[in-house]
Amino acid sequence: MPELPEVETVRRGLAHFLIGYRFKSAEGLHPRVVKPASLQPLSAVVGAHIKGINRRGKFLWFELDRELALVAHLGMSGQFLVARKDRPAPGHVRAHFELSKGFKKQELLFRDQRTFGWLSVEQLTDGIPQSARHIALDPFDAAFDRSAVIARMKARKAAIKSVILNQEIMSGVGNIYADESLWRAKIHPEIPACELSVKKIGSLVDAAVQVMAEAVEVGGTSFDAMYINVNGESGFFETSLAAYGQEGEPCPRCGRGIRRIAFGNRSSHYCPKCQVRT
């Protein structure tokens, strides 16, 4: 699933290509592409100008010159693509948009092979769409309160990996960057959060910020064609992964083989020497 770095990369791409454009047409091409709670069909955005592209955690939305916003969640494999004539037409297109700015035209596609992503037309409350109101601030939000987030984590009895994945405590972190952050902070994924010191949890939050910032700079992590930027390019952070997906590979810090364990319905990767569960 695209995590904060991938969604931020998409946000930046959409902003680069589409701010100032007006929706000329908007068409859903799959029965599940529009979220059932959507206030109106996608055609409600026709005629609206794009003022900005915003994000909270893994949620994206197009800020328009009207009270409504076009909201998107990429799910497992959702992609926005600005159509290019020099590339083959992509498959699995679930929604199609035509846009214009003066004499310039753009064609925007939303494709989603696994169809877990969705689009929605929503009203904003204090600048946030209804779908994202329950989502906590992510570490790159100017209003992010590091101390408050650490305190909330410290109060939890659940395994620390479950806590850092909780989007209502701190948004944006998924399985990839959870494993990488825990590795950098030298924390075993199964240690209960309440057993960690405030300082140690702080080091984990800081590691998450650092690793996600580094990933954003190289366009996120692309293991396959399930995630690409709006211009069709892949991200390159996969080459920097120390733990996630590295089972059996030597730990870059100590040389011990990285292990994989079952963690809920996911896998968790860690170094048994650097990340000792005490």
From TrEMBL:
DNA binds at H92, R114, R156. Residues 242-276 form the FPG-type domain. Transmembrane segments: none annotated. InterPro entries: DNA_glyclase_Znf_dom_DNA_BS, FPG_cat, FPG_Glyclase, FPG_N, H2TH_FPG, Ribosomal_uS13-like_H2TH, Znf_DNA_glyclase/AP_lyase, Znf_FPG/IleRS. It catalyses: 2'-deoxyribonucleotide-(2'-deoxyribose 5'-phosphate)-2'-deoxyribonucleotide-DNA = a 3'-end 2'-deoxyribonucleotide-(2,3-dehydro-2,3-deoxyribose 5'-phosphate)-DNA + a 5'-end 5'-phospho-2'-deoxyribonucleoside-DNA + H(+); Hydrolysis of DNA containing ring-opened 7-methylguanine residues, releasing 2,6-diamino-4-hydroxy-5-(N-methyl)formamidopyrimidine. Its cofactor is Zn(2+). The active site is at P2 (schiff-base intermediate with dna), E3 (proton donor), K58 (proton donor), R266 (proton donor). Its EC number is 3.2.2.23, 4.2.99.18. SUPFAM superfamilies: Glucocorticoid receptor-like (DNA-binding domain) (SSF57716), N-terminal domain of MutM-like DNA repair proteins (SSF81624), S13-like H2TH domain (SSF46946). Binds 1 zinc ion per subunit. Residues 2-117 form the Formamidopyrimidine-DNA glycosylase catalytic domain. Belongs to the FPG family. NCBIfam families: fpg, PRK01103.1. Monomer. Involved in base excision repair of DNA damaged by oxidation or by mutagenic agents. Acts as DNA glycosylase that recognizes and removes damaged bases. Has a preference for oxidized purines, such as 7,8-dihydro-8-oxoguanine (8-oxoG). Has AP (apurinic/apyrimidinic) lyase activity and introduces nicks in the DNA strand. Cleaves the DNA backbone by beta-delta elimination to generate a single-strand break at the site of the removed base with both 3'- and 5'-phosphates. This is Formamidopyrimidine-DNA glycosylase.
